[in-house]
Amino acid sequence: MRANPVVAVLHAEAVPDTVHMAPVAARADIRYTDAAGLAAALDGADVLFVYDFLTDALPRAWHAARTVDWIHVAAAGVDPLMFPELRDSDVTVTNSSGVFDEAIAEYVLAQILSFAKDIPESLRLQRDHTWLHRESERIAGRTVLVVGTGPIGRAIARLLTAVGMRVRGSGRRARVSDPDFGTVTPTEDLPAALAGADFVVVAAPLTEQTRNLFDAGMFGAMKPGARFVNVGRGDLVRTGDLVDALRTGTIAGAALDVVDTEPLPDGHPLWDMPNVVITPHNSGDFVGWREALIDVFVENFQRWQVGMPLDNIVDKHLGYVPSS
To answer: What would the pLDDT profile of 59-80 be if each residue is shown by its tens digit?
Structure first.
């Protein structure tokens, strides 16, 4: 049992709920801090809980993290933290994998149904008081390629399979008879896999290998009628190439929960494109998600304090928790 550890908690505007943090407060000295005070809070700290999961403050305060043994991130993606000094250190990094999986899968299904049933156009017609009979698409039997075969991608695959869609995966390595995807094609074969998909769902982590993965060439490999759904990271996509693909009909539509600049700037062409749906990086943010993130940290803290193996250990060189 580690006695009287010091836990630094980096937050933005919202401080973590103290009721949910109580099990940690009973066993540790907690230092709540914003980005400006992070270096001071890290001085002598054993643990850092990055509750502000979009922060870029840690590299500037890293000189003070001499005693930090473990960093936990309140997010599935850890790309903002993967700076060289942390990557090359002995500090263990864990994430909150599992919290958002099912909620994001539901979001993806909702967007696919919205495309198939053309819900945006129905809302526009209703606003215009126009009664116009139209036909819609079925999603059963349509093909989905999920790019990213981690826990979020797997949750998406299971839900889409359950509604009758034909799901395939794209990941780092090829495999067959996968329990969730059936067939997984390697990233180097992505263009060929895209050609057979009616819907392309991106749920991959952002790494140096996946940054700008979707460019003009990838969009050109897709079916003209295909729809693109991104719930991964905005920097997985060359946004200018996506805009061009949508304008020219290279692809038929996009649902974007993430973009490469957040918030999306005023005047950006994506705002007004009729075949685009934009949401503000909230695909996984169900009622109670903040408390669920704290609970994951609390459970891992209890494991860390008694020397048990931690859950969700990130491979710092890959940039995510490796799948088994």
So the answer is: 999 999 999 999 999 999 999 8
Q: How far is CA 275 from CA 114, 139, 175, 212, in A?
A: 11, 18, 34, 22
The vertex-304 CA angle with 300 and 307, nearest 5°, equals 135
Task: Say if 6-99+287-305 and 101-278 have the same CATH topology.
Answer: yes
Which single residue is written with the structure tokens 């066993």? 27
Q: Which residues are catalytic?
A: 233, 262, 281
Q: 3-state DSSP call for residue 318?
A: coil
Whole-model pTM above 0.90? yes
CATH topology for 6-99+287-305 is Rossmann fold (3.40.50)
**All structural domains of the chain with their residue ranges:** 6-99+287-305, 101-278
Q: How far is the C-alpha of 39 from the C-alpha of 47, rounded, in Å?
A: 13
Instruction: Render 103-149 in DSSP notation, one character per residue.
Output: HHHHHHHHHHHHHHHTHHHHHHHHHTT----------TT-EEEEE--
Tokens 């990233």 identify what position? Answer: 187
Sign (positive/negative) of CA torsion 44, 48, 52, 57?
A: positive
Which residue has tokens 């709920």?
Answer: 17
Phi, psi (deg, nearest 5) at residue 108: -60, -45
Q: Give the pLDDT score at 1.
A: 65
DSSP class of 236:
G
Kindly report, residue by residue over 127-136, the tens digit of the pLDDT.
999 999 999 9
Closest CA relative to residue 185, chosen from 146, 237, 211: 146
Topology of the domain covering 101-278: Rossmann fold (3.40.50)
